[in-house]
Amino acid sequence: MTEAVVEARGVGKVFGSGPDQTEALRGIDLDISSGDFVSLIGPSGCGKSTLLRIIGDLVGPTTGDIAVNGKTPDRARLDRDYGIVFQSATLLDWRTVQKNVELPLEIMDFPADVRPVRAAEMLELVQLGGFAGHFPWQLSGGMQQRVAIARALAFKPSLLLMDEPFGALDEMTRELMQQEVLRIWEETGTSVIFVTHSIPEAVFLSTKVVVMSPRPGRISEEIVIDLPRLRTQDTREDQRYFELITEVREALRREESGVADDRA
Amino acid sequence: MTERDEVIGESGVTDVFAAFEEDLPGGPSNQRGVIVRYLPAVVAFAVVILLWEGLTRLFGVETFVLPKPSEVMTSFLETAGVIWGAGFRTLIEAVGGFVIGVTLAVITSLAAARWVGFREGVLPLAIAANATPIVALAPIFNNWFSITSPFSKMAVVAVVVYFPVMINTTRGLLEVEPGEIELMRSMAASPTEVTRMVRIPNALPYFFASLKVASALSIIAAIVAEYFGGPQDVLGQYIINRANLFQFPDAWAAILVASILGVVFYLLVLGAERLVMPWHVSFRSTE
Amino acid sequence: MGTAATRRHVRSGLSILALIVVFVLLWEGYKLIWAALGWEWPVRPDDRTMPHTWDIFLTLFQPAQRNGPLFIFVEGKAALLTLREAFVGFVVGGAIGFGLGVLFVRSRTAERAFMPYVVASQTVPILAIAPMVVVWGGRLDVPQWLTVSVIAAYLTFFPVAINTLRGLRSTPTNALELMRSYAGKPRETLWKLQVPTAMPYIFTALKVSAAASVIGAIVGELPAGFRGGLGRDLLQYSQQFTAAPEKLFAAVLIAGLAGMFFVGLVTLVEHRWAGRNGLRSYPREGTAG
Question: Which residue among A184, A188, B54, B282 has its CA within the 20 to 30 Å range from the CA of B109?
Answer without folding.
Answer: B282
